[in-house]
What we know:
Elements: E1 17-18, H1 20-29, E2 37-40, E3 48-49, E4 53-54, E5 64-65, E6 69-72, H2 74-77, E7 86-94, E8 108-112, E9 124-127, E10 156-159, E11 169-170, E12 181-183, H3 191-199, E13 204-208, E14 212-218, E15 222-223, E16 234-235, H4 238-249, E17 252-259, H5 263-273, E18 279-283, H6 294-298, E19 327-333, E20 335-336, E21 340-346, E22 351-356, H7 360-379, E23 390-395, E24 401-402, E25 408-416, E26 421-424, H8 433-437, E27 441-445, E28 451-452, E29 457-462
Parallel strand pairs: 1-19, 7-8, 14-17, 14-18, 15-16, 18-22, 20-25, 23-26
Antiparallel strand pairs: 2-13, 3-13, 4-12, 5-11, 6-8, 6-9, 7-10, 19-21, 21-22, 23-29, 24-28, 25-26, 25-27, 27-29
Amino acid sequence: MSSSAPQHPRPADGHRLWSVDEHLADVLGAVRPLEPIELQLLDAQGCVLVEDVTVPVALPPFDNSSMDGYAVRTADVQGASEEFPAVLTVIGDVAAGSGELPTVGPGEAARIMTGAPLPPGAEAVVPVEWTDGGTGGGAAAGMTPASAAPEQAGGEVRVHRAAEARAHVRARGSDVQAGDLALAAGTVLGPPQIALLAAIGRGTVRVRPRPRVVVLSTGSELVQPGEPLTAGTIYDSNSFALAAAARDAGAIAYRVGAVADDADTLRSTIEDQLIRADLLVTTGGVSVGAYDVVKEALSSVGSSGSSGSSGSGDGDGDVDADVDATRIDFRKLAMQPGKPQGFGTIGPDHTPLLALPGNPVSSYVSFELFVRPAIRALMGLPESEVRRPSVRAVLKADKALGSPAGRRQFLRGKYDAETGTVSPVGGSGSHLIAALAHADSLMVVPEDVTSVEPGTELEVVLLG
Length: 464
């Protein structure tokens, strides 16, 4: 899966609170960029290039017309006007893709189409609107299709305006020259980059593939959208939110959906998904409730058949096993929302797994802080592009915002780039999905701050 063996997560230290930065460092320390592969161009969209690509031939490869019109010699149209047009003999058509080209001599012109090569002897192109189009009348609005009037590839054309040398001609190599660097290693391939690769003749490219991320939510109370709710049930939103977030981060996402609160079922589901996962994300079941089964299930996932023991969970759900077995640490973080977190690697390929809390806002904030950077690291992106960008902004609010002592709080916000301000959206509750849907940023309140007055400058993580 990775270019080198990943580090194991550090074991949890009793019941201490981990900082956000410590947990993220642990996650990124266990993730390595995926091995490069050769992909067809469209399959490489969204992937990171691992090699410099140079231009094999100039682009465009020949002088060509940027207009539909007539290829002419500049001396033949010098001084031309509507009152005294230059009358030229039309010697044929030059269409895009033309092979053999007519030679334009004195007093001659060739009809030429956009993208067609400039024929020998011609020095410029006059747009068809500067001519009578070969009709003998006034200014033409366009050319008659060759199939409808092939005779207009001959005869005469009246040119009403002069043209300077190289007018409406795209010069060979005016885009890129042979030997130029087309794209540098580390480039994320979007539509414009794919277009350039195709234009210079590359059919395949060597990239790091998009990570395959499997997302599953846990909870017997979860019902799939579109199905009827019964007493005590709610719709599963987390698996949809996180699968969408994984795609947004650049991954190929597989949404498994809700798994009941049964350790054996969850264990079997995770083991089944390992074959197609570069990263696994679970949501729910990581707290201290009697039905939080993720800890129980992950104590032996993927360890069957290894040379060592499957490990044994301690009172906090931590597992210590050999390098071939599951090793998942469950810890408490000094943050709100998202205090309970789980992280480790599972199976013989050391597939990273992040176990997120089940409350919707906690789950999404945890994804942005920890899972998204892991996905971006798997893609091989530079460190500057692994995390969401952040800015400083002034709090715009009606009253002070409270924050628990010793916790780094992430509040939903609406950022205004023009005024450099950020406003809170909704409250701090970890179940407030509607507020999250209207937010475009996270306001960060440091651990040592318990109250933020309006007008205070804050760090703001931009989500869009």
